[in-house]
Amino acid sequence: MMRALAAVIGVLFACSGAAADARVGSKSFTESYLLAEIVARLVEEAGEVAAARRFGLGGTGIVYRALETGEIDVYPEYTGRSAAPSSATPRWRRSKRSVSRCAAGGSR
Description:
By secondary structure, this protein is mainly alpha-helical. It has five helices and two strands; from the N terminus they run αβαβααα. The chain has a two-stranded parallel sheet.
């Protein structure tokens, strides 16, 4: 599964004409560093693009801003957390908002 994800990331970058590197980010705690390193190595192993590591960015808000501004291209996240992009948003509205953002092509 992870190899397939890495291959998909590589193909998307190769086809999009994006930067030569897939910029992999992480939050600033040990498990996030480890998961991001696994993703970076899988991307490199797929051989489509190189992986630029941007680890230890900070908390959820900082990492989401990095995604939105293009500072990073991908970072590993827990399914439940990625469905709730803002703790300021009421819980019952979070998943609806996330689903509609994804359906509209993401946050960019």
